[in-house]
Amino acid sequence: MVKRYEAESRVRHFGCRQQLICMVFAQLTWREGLRDIAACLNARPSNLHHLGFSQPIAKSTLADANEQRDWRLWEDLAKGLMRKARALYVGEEFGLDLDNTIYALDSTTIDLSLTLFPWAAFRQTMAGIKMHTQIDLRGPIPTCIHITGARQHDVGWLDSLLFEPGAFYLMDRGYMDFARLFLIANAGAFFVTRAKSILQFTRHYSLPVDRFTGLRSDHVGKPSLAKSRNAFPALLRKVRYYDSETERELIFLTNNLEIPALTVAMLYKMRWRIELFFRWIKQHLRIKHFYGTSPNAVKTQIWIEVTTYLMVAIIHKQMKLPGTLHRTLQLLSVHPFEKVTLNELLTESDHRTSDDRERNQLNLYGL
């Protein structure tokens, strides 16, 4: 990859490997700036030497590397790790009796300072970028990430995706567009999304439901409006579900007419896992943690952040660590002068309870 992008031309001692080590260290230990990174790493010269650094780290050297080295190198590295991580998690169970691959799609907006990042202007007084993400819920492992300006609407990203036949795609109401949903159905894939409140639906027939499970109705039909019906000419399924935790009635749409209605509701509920991924990413990408202001530096940092997440995911699976991936990430994100021993990772208890607490702090249905 270094050769492909000529990333180390005229480089004497601070190569891409050293840049990666610095950035991963900074993200796992919550460094607040380039000077902070250099000071912490240079404080342990013997350790620095064993990591492959022949000279102390200079703040300006790291800044130049982030600004000038092509960010696509780190994108390619992350994509390679995505393939490796997915292969390790392919047999992961997620609590539903389905053999299909299940993807969750969503986006998160990362707020930026308009003064420092004028190229990312979003509103009159704000700047920002949007991170469109697709994750495989067996992990969860990101499989596709696209970084755009914050102004781009979520649903436009569907135009550039290739849909896997037989897979489920879980999306919120922001992706509710019948023409694009039909592309998913036409590819042989399935979607589960929440219906907008203004949806007009014509029922063709009803399926029986068990009201004690929270289900209220299960209808098969088509959109009532001619424009919507022309955009999606196939049959749709509308499942109405009452969630006792939030005391809200929710309406889901899917093109899969075979799976149980309760499975449709439970599939959508699993979207909270992508929120955990965004939560970890954004904790490390707060505004004071950006180490450069150019588009190249920002994308470099984001892709190395994703690389860090994937490396921990691979280590978590290869070492057969107990608990969830997010619990391991939480344990490894520590102050640089604290230590987490291997024994602590292997004997960590109450991991399931901790993960449940994280889930309960999030809004499961994205309301």
What structural category do the secondary elements indicate? alpha+beta
Large-scale geometry? elongated
Low-confidence stretches: 349-367
- N-to-C order of helices and strands: HHHHHHEEEEEHEEEHEEHHHHHH
Report the portion of residues in β strands.
15-25%
Number of strands: 10
Please outline the major beta sheet.
Answer: 10 strands, mixed
Mean pLDDT: 86
Radius of gyration: 23 Å
The helical percent reads 25-40%
First-to-last CA distance: 42 Å
Number of helices: 14
Brief summary of the model shown:
The protein is of the alpha+beta class and 367 residues long. It has helices at 2-5, 16-28, 34-42, 45-50, 59-68, 72-88, 178-186, 226-231, 261-269, 272-283, 295-318, 325-332, 342-346, 351-361, and strands at residues 102-112, 121-123, 126-136, 141-149, 168-171, 190-194, 201-206, 215-223, 236-243, 248-254.
Account of the protein in words:
- This protein has 367 residues and is of the alpha+beta class.
- Among the domains are: 2-72 and 302-361, no CATH class; 173-270, Ribosomal Protein S8, Chain: A, domain 1, CATH 3.30.1370.
- It is built from 14 helices and ten strands.
- It has helices at 2-5, 16-28, 34-42, 45-50, 59-68, 72-88, 178-186, 226-231, 261-269, 272-283, 295-318, 325-332, 342-346, 351-361, and strands at residues 102-112, 121-123, 126-136, 141-149, 168-171, 190-194, 201-206, 215-223, 236-243, 248-254.
- Strands 1, 2, 3, 4, 5, 6, 7, 8, 9 and 10 form a ten-stranded mixed beta sheet that branches.
- The longest helix is centred in the C-terminal third of the chain and has 24 residues, at 295-318.
- It is elongated.
